[in-house]
């Protein structure tokens, strides 16, 4: 579980900051150990790897009771994937934090019956199996909403619950390709590249979280439906919705965007620029007034003078490569720390390209509680530094209440309370739990 001292310090800072806001002072509201936004919501997570578990991770960070259902013996593969420390997958410590673990073999009738019992008290169920898997086990949407008409079921799959591609196996990398995202990645004339994180899975899980929150609101608001609903999230659609105006540009202009390296075509200056010490610095100064400040800073006020080729956004976009070359010649004369200081003083957006080493020691991350220490049961309580909770709420802030669970750690707490200890002992002996 979270280190008590760290948790208290984090909570105290959150409370203190809220109590100093003009709203709190004006309204006379003093906050003390507030509840999180989703306290009282029970979530069942049947998913594995990332597409489903990341959705459950968001619920847990904001106070929901998340019961993760894992197969007996092995558990979620994420327990042992990625970077391992003392046999524990380090991404697992993040994506499973704050959850409870129960083990049920959903392929067996006794396991399916046990899950139906838990569903009776659940608000949300999350799954990311291939379409039809839960139906084969008698645990599909039609079956479970008969058990609990208020249930909200989040289903994250490659292609959605219908359509001609429904039954295809779908991974995040394939979804990134189908959405057009990969077509824009990398350098012109080179093979498409991927970012070294699971973007498609995480975005789909986030959309599932948003959909579940909307369904909860529709169910429980005054005059609401009082009934649950299914949230159907396709990995490729979660990526597609972020693809800006690529389709209308094709339809109306006949333009097919392609890879453009570190720039957005026609948006200048907005690129990575070399510093004298070998670092690279991001500068974004494509807005007219910001560019004028950058031009002054670079000793080239003529760049932004009336009638100059770079005066307007359109003009800079048309001469993007030329302008970037001139800026590179200037930035290469300054060390990155001096360049960044001058940019900040002039009100020009700029930043160093951070690695995890930079993030670990950054004062702003620390001040915003974006690096927290969580004690891990599988590591005998040793703490792991992890990302903080996002987004921040002043009245009902999220917090990490405990680390990732041991496999089946909560079987007795959750399952025995429903069917009795003797029955759980029998099911355990039979390998069902």
Task: Tell me the layout of helices and strands.
Blueprint: H1 4-19, H2 22-27, E1 42-45, H3 53-61, E2 65-70, E3 84-85, E4 88-89, H4 90-95, E5 100-103, H5 109-119, E6 124-127, H6 133-136, H7 141-147, E7 152-157, H8 172-178, H9 199-220, E8 230-234, H10 235-240, H11 246-253, E9 270-274, E10 280-284, H12 288-297, H13 313-318, H14 320-331, H15 336-346, E11 350-352, H16 356-360, H17 363-367, E12 371-375, E13 383-387, H18 411-419, H19 421-429
Parallel strand pairs: 1-2, 1-6, 2-5, 6-7, 7-8
Antiparallel strand pairs: 3-4, 9-10, 10-11, 12-13
Averaging pLDDT over every residue, what do you get?
92
- First and last CA, distance: 24 Å
**Unreliable spans:** 1-10, 22-31
Major sheet description: 6 strands, parallel
* Record field, number of beta strands: 13
Descriptive notes:
Mean pLDDT is 92; it is low at 1-10 and 22-31. The protein has helices at residues 4-19, 22-27, 53-61, 90-95, 109-119, 133-136, 141-147, 172-178, 199-220, 235-240, 246-253, 288-297, 313-318, 320-331, 336-346, 356-360, 363-367, 411-419, 421-429, and strands spanning 42-45, 65-70, 84-85, 88-89, 100-103, 124-127, 152-157, 230-234, 270-274, 280-284, 350-352, 371-375, 383-387. The chain has a 6-stranded parallel sheet with strand order 5-2-1-6-7-8, sandwiched between helices. Strands 9-10-11 form a 3-stranded antiparallel sheet, covered by helices on one side. It has 433 residues and is an alpha/beta fold. Helices cover 39% and strands 13% of the residues. The longest helix has 22 residues, at 199-220.
Task: Give a brief rundown of this model.
By secondary structure, the protein is of the alpha/beta class.
């Amino acid at each position: 579980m979270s280190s008590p001292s760290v948790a208290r310090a984090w909570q105290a800072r959150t409370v203190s900051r809220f109590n100093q806001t003009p709203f709190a002072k004006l309204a006379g509201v003093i906050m003390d150990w507030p509840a999180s936004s989703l306290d009282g919501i029970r979530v069942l997570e049947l998913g594995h790897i990332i597409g489903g578990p990341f959705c459950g991770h968001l619920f847990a960070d904001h106070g929901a009771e998340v019961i993760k259902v894992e197969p007996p013996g092995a558990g979620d593969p994420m327990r042992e994937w990625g970077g391992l420390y003392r046999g524990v997958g380090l991404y697992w410590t993040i994506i499973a934090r704050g959850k409870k673990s129960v083990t049920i073999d959903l392929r067996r009738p006794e396991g399916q019956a046990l899950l139906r019992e838990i569903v009776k008290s659940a608000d949300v169920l999350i799954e990311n199996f291939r379409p039809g898997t839960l139906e084969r086990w008698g645990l599909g949407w039609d079956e479970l909403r008969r058990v609990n008409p208020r249930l909200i079921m989040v289903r994250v799959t490659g292609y959605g619950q219908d359509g001609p591609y429904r039954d295809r196996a779908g991974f995040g990398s394939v979804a990134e390709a189908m959405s057009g995202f990969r077509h824009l990645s990398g350098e012109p004339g080179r093979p498409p590249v991927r970012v070294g994180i699971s973007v498609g899975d995480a975005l789909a899980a986030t959309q599932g979280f948003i959909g579940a929150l909307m369904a909860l609101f529709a169910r429980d608001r005054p005059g609401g439906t009082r009934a649950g609903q299914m949230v159907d999230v396709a990995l490729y659609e979660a990526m597609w919705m972020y693809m800006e105006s690529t389709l209308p540009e094709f339809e109306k202009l006949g333009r097919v965007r392609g890879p453009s390296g570190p720039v957005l075509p026609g948006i200048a200056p907005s690129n990575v620029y070399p510093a004298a010490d070998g670092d690279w610095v991001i500068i974004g100064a494509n807005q007219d007034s910001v560019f004028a400040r950058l031009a002054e800073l670079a000793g080239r006020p003529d760049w932004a003078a009336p009638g100059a080729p770079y005066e307007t956004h359109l003009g800079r976009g048309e001469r993007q490569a030329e302008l970037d070359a001139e800026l590179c010649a200037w930035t290469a004369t300054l060390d990155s720390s001096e360049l960044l200081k001058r940019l900040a003083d002039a009100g020009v957006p700029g930043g160093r390209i951070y690695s995890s080493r930079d993030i670990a020691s950054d004062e702003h991350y620390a001040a915003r509680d974006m690096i927290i220490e969580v004690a891990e049961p599988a590591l005998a309580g040793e703490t792991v530094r992890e990302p903080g909770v996002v987004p921040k709420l002043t009245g009902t802030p999220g917090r990490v209440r405990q680390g990732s669970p041991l496999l089946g750690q909560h079987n007795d707490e959750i399952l025995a309370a429903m069917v009795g200890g003797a029955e759980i002992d029998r099911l355990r002996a039979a390998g069902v739990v």
